[in-house]
Amino acid sequence: MTLAESQTPEIPADDFSRRFAMRAPNLMWFLGAGASVAAGIPTAYDMIWEFKQKLFISQRLMSPKSVADLSNPTIRTQIQTHIDSLGTLPPLGATEEYAELFEAAYPSEGDRRAYIEAKVAGAKPSFGHLVLAALMKAGLTRLVWTTNFDALIADACAKVYDGTGALTTGSLDAPDLVVQRIGENRWPVEVKLHGDFRSRRLKNTSDELRMQDARLRGLLVDCCRRFGLVVAGYSGRDDSIVDALEDVLTQPNAFPGGLFWLHRGDGAPFPRVTDLLMRAKAVGVDAALVRVHSFDEATRDLLRLLDKVDGSALDGFGSERRRRSSAPVPSGRVGWPLVRLNAIPVLRAPTQCRKIVCKIGGHKEARDAVERAGVQVIVARVKAGVLAFGSDADVRAAFSSHAITQFDLHAIETKRLRYDSGERGLLREALSQAIARNRALDWRRRRDTDLFVPSDPDAGVWRPLRQLVSSTSGIVKGFPDLEWREGIGTRLDWADDRLWLLVEPRIVFDGLTDENRAAATDFARERSVKRYNTVFNDLIAFWVSILSGDESDMRAFGIGDGVDALFALSRNTAFSRRSGA
Fold it and tell me: Which of 78, 86, 423, 433 has the smallest C-beta neighbourhood within 10 Å, fewest atoms?
C-alpha cells in the first residue's frame, strides 16, 4: 500500500447509502462500462484482450483455436509478449491501452462502429439500470452522464415510464438539445460523452478522446458546480474526463452534493482517481471511495432507504429474467441435477485472524518482511493493518522491526468476502496451504488461479486418476525440459451468500518458457479435447473426493499457538436443474 493509497478518503457502502438517501436529488450519476457488465456487455478490460487476440492471430498467422481461451494465464502471456514485441502499443495496464488497441485492431471508424454495435446488440437493462430509471421517475435522479455507447438507460426508462418520451438523451451529435434541457431544468437527462453507438462520431481513438467535445465537457464542469456526483463502473481511464473533474475543483462550489467513486474489489483505483479524491477532500468536498460488489448490488442497497421509489417495475425484473435460487441436494431417483457444476461449498472457514498495526508499506512489503524473517506466516495488507495467520512468535519475528503499535485479533466480516478483498485473498492463500499440507498435493500460486498437482504421481491414492486419464505425468515430445502433470486449478469465490472453491481439471507444466508456451498450449488442448461430459464429470468427482477428504478438517499450519486457519470442504458440488424439478 503506497502512501497515497493509505490516505485515500474512503467510506463503507452502508455510510454511502445513508448519505445518498439524504442527498439523492442533488447527486448526478456517471456510468462507465462496468455498470453494463450484468447486461451482457463486455468491459473495456475484456475488449482490450479481444483486440490483442485479434492482432496476435492476424499478425502471427495463428489458428484462433490456439488462443481461444483468454482466461488462461499462459495464453494471455503469449499474446502480451507479442504485443510488447511490436514496440508501438502502450504497455500492459496503461490508461491509453484501450483506445490505442481499438484503433490498431480496427483503423476504420466504420469498422469500430460495427464492432460496438455488435457488442451492444441484444443487451437488456440490468437491475441497476432499472433502479436508476425508477429513481428518475421518483425525481431522485435528474442527470446521468456516461461514456457507454449502449441504450440501456433509455430502455430501462421505457420500461419504468411505460413509454419512451420521458428521457432526453443527448450525445456528440446533439449537444444543443442537452444544453437546452439542462438549462430549463427539464429532467431526466442522459448525456453520452463518447457518442451513441449509432452515431457517426464514435469517440474511440486516442486522438478522438483527447479532442473530447469541449462543449459537453464544459457542461459537465458547470453541472458539477450545481450537483454532486456518483461515479459507478468507471475506471478513470480517459484523461479528458478526469481532467474535466479536476477542473471543477479549481472553481467555487465544487461538487456541492459530494463526490463518491464506487469501486469494485479491494485493490487500488487508478492513481489519478486517488489523486482526484484527495484533492477534492483537501478543498472541502465530501469526497470518498466506496467499495462495492457490483453496480447492481450497490443500487439494490440504496433502495432500502428510499421509500419514494415505485418498485413495481423492479418487481417484474425477476419474471423477465430467470435467476438462480437455492435448491436442496437431490436424493433418490427423482430430481437429480441436469448439470453438475465445479463449485465445492466451503463448509468451514476462519472467522478471525491476527491483526498487526505497524509502520510498513503495502502487500509486497508485508510479504517481503515474512520472507526475510524465514517464518511460515500468511499475510494480507489492508487499510486496517496487516492481517495474518501463523504462530504469534513467527508473526512478531516478521514485523517487530516495523514498530508494532497494535497486536490484536481481527474479525473476518462476511460482507468483505463478497468481493476480491484482502480478507478473501488471505483465506484463499490459507485454504491453498491447507489443501497442500493435508491432501498430498504440490501448490503453485498464480495471479488468478492456484494450481495443484500430486506430490507423488505414482502413489496409490492417484490410481483412480490414472484409470481416468491413463497417465498423470510426462515430458512434452520434442521439449525435454518441458514437464507436465495432471492437476487442477482452483479459485475461491462467493455466491449464494457463501464461499465456494471452484475446481478445474487441467494440465500443469514445469519449465515453461516463451519458446515452448505454444507447444504446451497445443499439448494441453490435445490431451483434454476428448474429455467429454462423462469423463469430465468423473474427473470432478475424483478431485472433489481428494479435496474434501470426506469433509474432514484441514489446518493451514497445525500450530498450537497464534491463529491457525481451519477449513472443511463439502463432498458434494453445486448443481443446476430446472426450476420445480
Answer: 86
